[in-house]
Amino acid sequence: MTATEAERALDASVRVELYRTMVLCRTFEDAILREYHADKKPAFDIGAGLVPGEMHLSSGQEPVAAGVCAHLTADDALTATHRPHHLAIAHGADLRKLAAEIFGREGGFGHGRGGHMHLFDPATHFSCSGIIAEGYPPALGQAFAFKRQGTDRIAVAVTGEGAANQGAFHESLNLAALWNLPVVFVVEDNDWGISVPRKASTATPSNSERAAGYGMPGERIEDNDVEAVYEAAARAVARARAGEGPSLIEVHTVRLLGHFEGDAQGYRDDMAGIESRDPIPRYEKALRDAGLLDDTEASRIREEARAKVEDAITFAKDSPEPDPATALSYVFA
Amino acid sequence: MTVMETQSTDTAGTRRLTTAKAMVEGIAQEMERDPSVIYLGEDVGKYGGIFSSTAGLLDRFGEDRVLDTPISETAFMGLAIGAAVEGMRPIAELMFVDFFGVCMDQIYNHMAKIHYESGGAVKVPMVLTTAVGGGYSDAAQHSQCLWGTFAHLPGMKVVIPSTPHDAKGLIISAIRDDNPVVYMFHKGVMGLPWMAKNPRATDVVPEEPYEVPIGKARIAREGNDITVVSVSLSVHHALDVADRLAADGGIEAEVVDLRSLKPLDREAILTSVAKTGRLVVVDEDYLSYGLSGEVVATITDVDPGMLRAPVARVAVPDVPIPYARSLEYAVLPTRDRIEEAIHQVVKG
After folding, report:
1. Distance, CA of A69 to CA of A186 (rounded, Å)
2. Chain A residues within 8 A of B118 when measuring between CB atoms
3. What is the CATH number of domain B218-347?
């Protein structure tokens, strides 16, 4: 189904918007990367510093977030993974609350209870889970509720290629198809389940083939192509909104960084020339070649992103640490 | 089996129902009142629930609200969670609690934690109903209680009715609660016509909707000599033993039916033991790291001096539930074991 570059006729404003979203996502991740490592030197201690704990950054995977979320509104639900920032940002989650939660501060989405793998934003119906594939089943319920409410709202469930071998993945595809739920399943194939390459984990070359086993359309997008993601998502989202049921989109993307920060990645055999797989410079070049972006506009987009992100980082740092006396708050409503 | 005992009327004209019938009535009244309440699970539709937990609901509310699911617990538990997050009040039935292993991630990592992780921003108002307990040779994978496991993990309330009255009141409270509530019904208290049952499985149940407060124990029988703390079917056994001992003259046991394990009514335990000074805990769950130890710690954390004799714990020793009747009844908390424990503690 994937059209070639020449066959596409994406609106210029859409193309610039895709770029803008990707830049915002990357700018945020770069800032978190900087803050995360700022006080973990010379000896890396995962639990130390302003931003403690595991940190899974999404750099390289922006085309998935930008291409899919372009079709969503804040009324649509999105469930993400342990690597969630790009999806939260592209779906419109508040950057300040996002940053503050990552910093473990009172001003965060969960008042510091959740952390970077457990983000919940009711305003955009965004959530994520640190358990592989287990973000899929709740998305079914959100879609179920939206359908019952008589709306055309949908749920998007995102997971990685490693999750596609979990029972929760297959159970969710089956039930969504069986009950004709307005869900779009997205698989971010970044080639690596921590250190295990896809070829060592998955019996089929494309998870989009697995969609056929559940009677739903499946598409695989190669080469991290943001416009191809956008177009595939347009079809899947329209199908879900029209009440025609779920679809699956797998995107072959790239993990530019480690599984988590501090991962030395000694296992990786695909690092040589990985910069050339960075989707953002590549897309920027495409837009420049098409005459849609010049130096002025490109730097304006980058500067806007930088300002928003630094505002969020400042907000996070200024937000108080949660009072230890409140550690037991929120167990029950 | 879906066969239900028909409701009976006692001589005073007070309506009596089985526990199963009382539970279903509570669900039906809430479904009537609140269109966001749905019931989903395996064989909850035409079958009416393997243990009659949904008998008649499909006919009354239709397939849109009483949904048979595939045998796919992770998917439908997660679906219930997501629907609850978006404002519905789903009831999801795990046919046997023993099956939690195939969907526990949705239960304890998602259902129970989302409210906390979200800093209170997201509520998960759902009920997880599940059948528990043994005594009918269903062996190691279909006979467990496991309530201690659920009560151990933070973020979900755990309620366990032993009577028809409480079955109705607790399911109504559970549905109305803004938190995830695990509602565990023992097959042996349901009053099923195809399983041995205690006469207490049929009792007076008011027709109008009412709540039984979650987190409040019930003094099932008053007495001054010894406190027997229990829950679920074991409450029936404890009452049988207490009545027999009283009739024999000599020992008046107070029986505390906890009804909720999370939150636990520690005050009720302390008040009773302060009065009697003697404690037996009867628990059909496993002995170690569970309810019985928690009840004892409730006393010793406050004042070990309250106890005039060592405590006895009557629970399933740490062994899988055996199949053969002779073996299963060797490990269940039977009336004989309860009586022996009471005598032992009274002697001091």
Report:
1. 11
2. 109-110, 113-114, 118, 120, 122, 127, 330
3. 3.40.50.920
